[in-house]
Amino acid sequence: MAGAYPWPVTFSAALTVLRTTLRQIPPAVIRSPSVQRAVQLVANNFTKWPSVTLPAGVVLKPDALGERRVPGEWLLPNGREDIPERSERLLLWAHGGAFALLSPGSHRRFLAQIALRADTPVFAVDYRKPPDFAFPAPGEDVLHAYGALRGGRRAEQVFLGGDTPGGTWPSQPRGGSRAWAAAPQMGWSCCRPGWTCLGGVQEGGLRNRDIDFICQPQAESLARIYSPSVDLTDVRVSPGLETRWRSWCPPTLLDYGGCESFHSQIELMIASMIKDGVDVDALEADGMVHCYPLMDFLWGSDPGPFEAYFARVARFLRR
Question: Cys staple from 106: which of 40, 102, 177, 318, with CB 3.0 to 4.6 Å?
């Protein structure tokens, strides 16, 4: 792969297998609720990183937040054993997975590195998922967990982070997310802002379709499961179409790959945020695909773009 970071053989091979496998799944099969539940069960049981694989000094603790007892897990840095009652800063993370898949367990290794490098406790929300819990239930869980951390005065600063769909929920102001702005010291850091326009693919997706592993027909089927009753061009599910940001959107760190299927959508959202006066620190990683920081274990000994990414997030959280 041409770019700032040529792909190692292991990374290229893994992306090829993933891309090929996903494209062989018929969209009609994806739309089946029974298939969705079965895939979730498999994904939740077999994509969790064991705690022994986490960086030294990071402790894993399950917890549930707020009156609704929203489940999730803490990643505590530098040998901390106790769930923080009070901290200088906390990071609340909404994991990705096409709105319906994966779990905090699939993101443990990635989030452990953020926790360690930023010396910041991280809570990963295990939000409800389709088909049993469609929009807006997943985002409501994230919002409730955030409110619990803020209301309990658990930290001077509570940051919200997310990747793919988890990176777009904070950008849904008409869906109630202006509550994020209740904390003037809040910001969020995103692995990438994700699928910002569910209503269709744009030029960037077509250009990168043979590089990135995201497959448009299959992705559209997942979007319909996530939002069966709200039109996919509604800003509550497609925040990339939003134009009003400044009154509620906090300073934002945003990273994305130059070879994303959603590349054009992401850049349109960034331009809209900047035009309306939001403090956006956006960086495109040349030659990288969707959610590339989660795949550093496939890269080998070379630091590639990953060291720079984690250092960048750590600086944002500790500024």
Answer: 102
